Amino acid sequence: MLRHDVSRRKFLGGLASSSVLSAVSPRLSASLFAGTAAALRVGLVGCGGRGTGAVTQAMTADPAVKFTAMADLFQDRLDMAYKSIVAKNPDQTDIPESRKFVGFDACRNLLESDIDLVILATPPGFRPQHFRDAVAAGKHVFMEKPVAVDAPGIRQVLSSGLEAKRKNLGVQAGFQRRHDVGYVEAIKRLQDGQLGKIQSLEADWRGGGVWMRPRTKGQSELEYQLRNWYYFVWQSGDFIVEQHSHNIDVCTWLMGGPPTKAEPIQAGRNSRIGNRAGEIFDEFITRFTWGTNRLGDDIQLHSTARQILNHPDGYKVGETIKCARGVADLAKGQFEDLSGTIVWKKSGNSPGLGGYQSEWDH
User: Fold this and answer.
1) Rounded distance between C-alpha atoms, residue 300 and residue 203, angstroms
2) Residues forming beta bridges with residue 319, ordered by sequence position
3) Lesser CB count within 10 Å: N end or C end of the chain?
4) Distances (CA, A) of 269 to 213, 239, 274, 278, 283
5) Rg of the Cα trace of the chain?
6) Around 87, how many Cα atoms within 13 Å sit in the side-chain half-sphere?
């Protein structure tokens, strides 16, 4: 945990190190905060589980962090989050009713309050607009992944990132695996050639069913979709964007940049049918290729994203890297040679919930 006397500078100094926007926005460095107050005032937009967790992890990182404003579309979600957060961190929570904002204008209202950093954790369909507004308001930003659900949204985020750079604002996206000690160590060893030349990659997010909130009497279609945002592409971007992007990001990190080609192999809906199914698919299988790369030529990633309850193939979330002298299982944090003998295992675990806490501690 960071010491109180250096918290504001050191705490913010590491936030942007793994951002997908690192090319266009600066790190949240100590120089940004010279001569400012000791406490770091944090606001939250999006009071679901991930937003609640992010605020708690920010406060765990240092006692100088103060949670001072929150916003959500729905009063019940905001009330639930506030109750959870204040129970765990009463001394670091200071939110009167006047700094609790509800409705479609809640984000803009929160950004008018006296905060230093805003956590953006709504469904990602809103992220480009919220990021744009946060940068316009001069706030530093931690935003959960994904940062958008479509190409226009990505272009808006990149444009806002350039504006953040011009304003010397720090920005980070929440790809927490880049801060997990096991992943960091494994990626370095693979890039250094411990298992020899990389031959192929596999990335899996094969999970079970997804939560659903039933339609209630008198509920509008808009509210139903907003409360069940995961099932609607305009809010979630579907499964590759919303969840499997973690695994693809790890492979991109390992390879030193994005693939040169993406080919759809299979996608569809087999189990998710009927009027409760929304728009999302059950499964996507995609092949990504890196052409000329410093780690080799024409290296392929086989990507499987599945969310089917009780699938006979079982569940698996992680990345497997096949190399000339062995296989790396990044989720387990271990390497095996060609005989199946473990030749390396990660030295420890990140504190708390793995990289979720480390991305705030660094």
Assistant:
1) 11
2) 203
3) N
4) 20, 12, 11, 11, 7
5) 21
6) 7
Residue 306 CA to chain centroid, in angstroms? Answer: 19
52 touches 66 (CB < 8 A): no
Per domain, the residue ranges of the chain are 4-174, 197-323
Closest to 283 in 3D by CA, of 301, 300, 265, 262: 265
- Which residue in 299, 204, 280 sits closest to 238, CA to CA? 280
At 81 the three-state DSSP class reads helix
Find out if CATH 1.10.10 is the number for domain 197-323: no
What pLDDT does residue 13 have? Answer: 41
Position 37: which residue type? A
| Cα 29 to chain centroid, rounded | 21
| Structure tokens that stand for 278 in this block | 């929304």
Torsion on CA atoms 114, 117, 123, 129, rounded to nearest 10: 70
How many helices (H) and strands (E) are present in the chain, helices listed first? 12, 14
Q: Distance (Å, rounded) from C-alpha 62 to C-alpha 292?
A: 43
Q: What is the pTM of this model?
A: 0.89
- Return the structure tokens found at 155: 């272009």
- Homologous superfamily (CATH) of 4-174 is NAD(P)-binding Rossmann-like Domain (3.40.50.720)
pLDDT in tens, 334-349: 999 999 999 999 987 6
**Max Cα–Cα distance, the chain, nearest Å:** 63
pLDDT tier, 274 (very low <50, low <70, confident <90, very high otherwise): low
Between CA 146 and CA 14, with CA 148 as vertex, the angle to 5 degrees is 50
In angstroms, rounded to a whole number, what is the distance separating the alpha carbons of residues 247 and 102? 34
Mean pLDDT of the chain: 88
Half-sphere exposure of 188 (CA within 13 A, CB side): 9
Q: Which of 258, 261, 213 is nearest to 77 (CA)?
A: 213
pLDDT at 216 over 80: yes
Q: How far is CA 237 from the centre of its chain?
A: 14
